Amino acid sequence: MYDVIVIGSGPGGYVAAIRAAQLGMKTAIIEKYPTLGGTCLNVGCIPSKALLDSSEHYHNAAHTFKTHGINLTNLKVDLKQMILRKDDVVKQNVDGIQYLMKKNKIEVHQGLGSFVDKNTVRVTKDDGTSQDLQGKNIIIATGSKPASLPFIKLDKDRVITSTEALNLKEIPKHMIVIGGGVIGMELGSVYGRMGAKVSVVEYLDSLIPSMDKTMGKELQKSLKKLGFDFYLKHKVTGVERKGKEVTVKAENSKGEIVELKGDYVLVSIGRKAYTDGLNAEAAGVKISDRGLVEVDDHLRTNVPNIYAIGDVVKGAMLAHKAEEEGTFVAEVIAGQKPHINYLLIPGVVYTWPEVASVGYTEEQLKEKGTKYKTGKFPFMASGRARASMDTDGLVKVLADAETDEILGVHMIGPRTADMIAEAVVAMEFRASAEDIARMSHAHPTYTEAFKEACLAATDNRALHI
Ligand code: FAD
């Protein structure tokens, strides 16, 4: 009998298993695929960032090296090698998880995990053999899969999801991206930087629509410079493939039909929770109409010894959110009283410039009726950004109008994915904009833009604009 059985080895599942083992619990993890690490390590965060880095190097070599005084001739992309390097990065990471399982004495079972009852999970291997595992506590961490529209036939060849976009054999001539969210903008950037024309069709009126509106607007400007075309407020009504040609039909806000022709369509309209084959009914676990496993504030399902974490439950579909929940649940099972501050889970888009955000957006503050002040600082005015020629974007700080407490920080610019951590720390310690404005930030760094935006938020006293 295990103390804890974890179903799914993504960032939620493997972190839950490690923390449970650290706390002295006998732990098993079940993964249906041959490699550990889930979406994030195999077909998500890690491979996408590997390709984003490679394509950004190429883009810089082709477009900015000359200005730096570096002349290259015969520059070309070796896509096959780029994909091989990405595969190697994935392998290093998934092997790392295997090592961590061994180090923490976590038993790894490869096969599909399905409930037999509330304490028994059957592991069925590809060859059909199976084994039943008994657990006092069970954590569902089965993640998510790409969502699509009912009328789109994903052929996984030219009408593709993010998974296939990480393994293309050629650079598209014209990639049509359906959905202006994080994954579409990241993978669109990968191929846009290498010369593909990219057209984005988005139903709403802005890109990355869950983030502060300023971010979407600024990102659109930067991606336009890369050659992206945008069809905002366009509702996709049809996708067809004939040979190597794909056609996307979309209806604009005037009710007119727009037709786009390309050679690849990337469907990136979001992801849906995944519980296929889990047989949750056998344990009596409730699944919502939207396919999410229902949980309470302690991430406990309606069955007291069964918990669920990560993409398969409500909330942002982010690896670090899943990880926090993995730690949280292991500690709850061990009788501790952990806490997650969901407001302070940052969101990042790894385009260039990067977008990073934490806390409330300006739109949310307006809706809540909170009185707030805004401080902005453009990277154009940053010495560090000028030195690296990364002057697109800005930092925007939202602070309470009366108390000066920082309520939200939204950044678009160079390395903001890393910079946002300072804002998370500041907000966790309930810093005021004045607090940050009075702290020394090394010069020249991109982080000075955060200090300057805080100075701007407190009596408009930014020093360098
Ligand atoms: P998953 O990582 O989806 O893992 C679930 C695992 O459970 C899978 O391995 C699956 O095979 C297994 N499983 C499912 N059912 C069973 C079963 N019945 N039995 C056994 N095993 C089962 N997030 C970020 O925070 N930062 C990023 O930069 C980022 N980039 C992304 C880029 C792309 C292209 C994509 C697609 C996603 C990205 N994400 C990113 C999102 C991130 O990958 C997910 O939020 C994260 O992987 C969720 O973790 P999880 O543990 O809940 O589930």
Automatic annotation (TrEMBL):
GO molecular function: dihydrolipoyl dehydrogenase (NADH) activity; flavin adenine dinucleotide binding
Catalyzed reactions: N(6)-[(R)-dihydrolipoyl]-L-lysyl-[protein] + NAD(+) = N(6)-[(R)-lipoyl]-L-lysyl-[protein] + NADH + H(+)
InterPro entries: Class-I_Pyr_Nuc-Dis_Oxidored, FAD/NAD-bd_sf, FAD/NAD-binding_dom, FAD/NAD-linked_Rdtase_dimer_sf, Lipoamide_DH, Pyr_nuc-diS_OxRdtase, Pyr_nucl-diS_OxRdtase_dimer, Pyr_OxRdtase_I_AS
Residue ranges occupied by any Pyridine nucleotide-disulphide oxidoreductase dimerisation domain in the UniProt entry: 345-453
Entry binding sites for NAD(+): G179, G180, G181, V182, I183, G184, M185, E186, E202, G270
Annotated FAD binding sites: K49, G113, T142, G143, S144, D311, M317, L318, A319, H320
Entry keyword annotation includes NAD: yes
Cofactor(s) this protein requires: FAD
Biological processes, Gene Ontology terms: 2-oxoglutarate metabolic process
UniProt-listed Enzyme Commission number(s): 1.8.1.4
Similarity annotation: Belongs to the class-I pyridine nucleotide-disulfide oxidoreductase family.
Listed name of the protein: Dihydrolipoyl dehydrogenase
Organism taxonomic ancestry: Bacteria, Pseudomonadati, Bacteroidota, Cytophagia, Cytophagales
